[in-house]
Amino acid sequence: MKFLFKFGLVVSVITTSSLVFLILAFLLYFSIPLFDSAIFVGFFTQKWDVSKSLYGLLPMILGTIYISVLATFFATAMSFSLASLSEGFLPKKIATVVEGIIVLLAGVPTVLYAFVALFLLVPLINIYFFMGKGLSIFTASFVLAFVVLPTIYVMMLSAFRGVPKKHIKTSLCLGATKKEVFFSIMLPQAKPALLGAIVFGFARSVGDTLIALMLSGNSLHMPNTLFDSARTLTSHIALINANDYESVAFKAIFLCALLLFIFTFFVVATLKYLYKEKRYA
Amino acid sequence: MKKVLLLVCFVGLLSLHASDLDIFKGLGGSLNIAGGTAHVECEKEVVKKIMQAYPAINITIAGGGSGVGIKQVSEGLIDIANSGRAPKAEEVHRANLKSFVFAIDGIGIVVNPKSPLSNLITTQLIDIFSGKVKTFEELGFKGGEINLYVRDSSSGTQDVFVEKGINKGVISDKAKVVASNASMKTAIANDLNAIGFVSLGVADDSVKLLCIDDVCPTIDNVVNGKYKVSRGLYLITKGEPKPLAKAFIDYLQSPKGADIVKKHGFIAPKK
User: Fold this and answer.
1) What CATH number has the domain spanning B106-230?
2) CA-nearest residue of chain A to B64?
3) Coil, helix or strand for B75?
4) Is position A244 within any domain?
């Protein structure tokens, strides 16, 4: 029995860890034909227009960056205030209720957010605020913020809870107010973990497909303003996968995926770095 | 309430015994359909009938767009592909595809019901979709910027629209891209300044159909060929269809199937 258990553990560790490398190898294998050709530079400088044989991913890269940065910004603002309120200031009972509600948000399927926004928020923006700008970077990132919010919130909570109780209690005994404890004890000590939460939330918003696909308008031009419509790398993959296998358009999917993969790698590396810093602090 | 229920049961029983469904007798298993989104509502009704009458048959319908459907059927992932365009010669050649037309569909240019537009000439349409005409003012109306809505590269509706509606013109890269006929309808209904195109079978009161060169997209005009932007709705199989797929195609092409096709705003092809 014990042997079986150990065997299972070893097998699962090997499969999961090798899976990452298999995916990387798969993506590299399919995108390598694109590396040595003249079109490679074009991927990062041109626009995407299949009829003119242009396969630039730049509008999509920009779209991804704009939407995810903005979403992370909204989500960070909201979850930081919520987390600091419930850990530092609110009475325990209310804090528990707030936490329950936010964690519940995490269970709502993404498609539901997108769907509700499509029928409520988009017409509202279209008619009352900015004529016909309902499907835009702003809408997508605003809704995406609510998807990312619980993730950042929960990680920020645990960041605050990671601050040794001894320090908090001692300062309270010394006569510090709640506000002073929060700003001079909790905030500085939780800082690396808080930053980690933001980075993690950012990674989550880059990876999301559905919100952007349904709400950002998916147009192919270079996004300039907040109310332009834009396409993310993830929705680009979803929208062009019907192309012919042999076409450059189809192969570009693997480059999109590789870009996302490399991006995730850097995010994980940043997270590791941040948490390491915390340990020695 | 009871009466209604009884009536429903009665109608249900009637359809159970409808002789047209006899071609499914003795068949079972699953049939997977995917691809074009114009077909879906019409097929759903047929599928419901079949699966009620013959519980051993399980039919699934998915979207994705005509291109996706054709790709998946060529790989043998699904049994029937819905396609809003004829398969290209190289697609037919590569996987030995067989195609069957079960309905004729027009593609309507749609705007928001509150839009001032009601008729456009083809050159205006070309200029609007290429992004040359950017505002309603340039067309002589009030309203500001025109918002274009188009479909993704997998769409058969878009292929036919580009070929017949705007004479192979270009589509502006500012156009917003939606992934199905139904989401096109939702997008247009929610945006006063929108213009886009949908399958006539999908269009309803939530959007307004435009006439092109004074020819309105009515069934009559599509049948007599005055309204040019039309296409067949195809069912595509890899090689000869298997018995269940064959029965499904035959049913849609039967007189009973033609009634359903008509009910959904399409035109049944002449035999």
Assistant:
1) 3.40.190.10
2) A242
3) coil
4) yes
Is residue A90 one of the residues assigned to a domain? Answer: yes
Q: Which residues of B touch A243 (CB under 8 A)?
A: 67, 153-154
What CATH number does residue A174 fall under?
A: 1.10.3720.10
3-state secondary structure of B174: coil
Q: B192 is written with which tokens?
A: 């006063």
3-state secondary structure of A125: helix
d(C-alpha A35, C-alpha B76), whole Å = 31
In a domain, A39, yes or no: no
Domain boundaries, chain B: 2-105+231-263, 106-230
* Mutant choice from A111, A116, A220, A232 vs B, greatest count of B C-beta within 10 A: A220
Nearest to B173 among A126, A213, A221 (CB): A221
Per-residue pLDDT of chain A (281 residues; tens, 9 = 90+): 788 888 999 999 999 889 988 988 988 888 887 776 666 777 787 788 777 777 888 899 999 999 999 999 999 999 999 999 988 888 889 999 999 999 898 888 888 999 899 888 888 888 777 666 778 899 999 999 999 999 999 999 999 998 999 999 999 999 988 889 999 989 999 988 899 899 989 998 998 889 999 999 888 888 888 888 899 999 998 888 766 666 777 888 888 899 898 888 888 888 888 777 655 44
Look up the ipTM and state it: 0.78
Contact state of B65 with A213 under an 8 Å Cβ cutoff: no
From the list B270, B236, B261, B269, the residue with the least C-alpha distance to B42 is B261
Contact state of B187 with A135 under an 8 Å Cβ cutoff: yes
What's the number of domains chain A is made of?
A: 1
Chain B residues within 8 A of A132 when measuring between CB atoms: 144-145, 147, 191-194
What pTM was computed for the model? 0.80
| B65 Cβ contact list (under 8 Å, min separation 6) | A242, B35, B36, B37, B151, B152, B154, B155, B156, B179, B180
Residue of B nearest to A120 (CA): B190
Residue B236 β-bridge partners: B81, B99
Fold that domain B2-105+231-263 belongs to in CATH: D-Maltodextrin-Binding Protein; domain 2 (3.40.190)
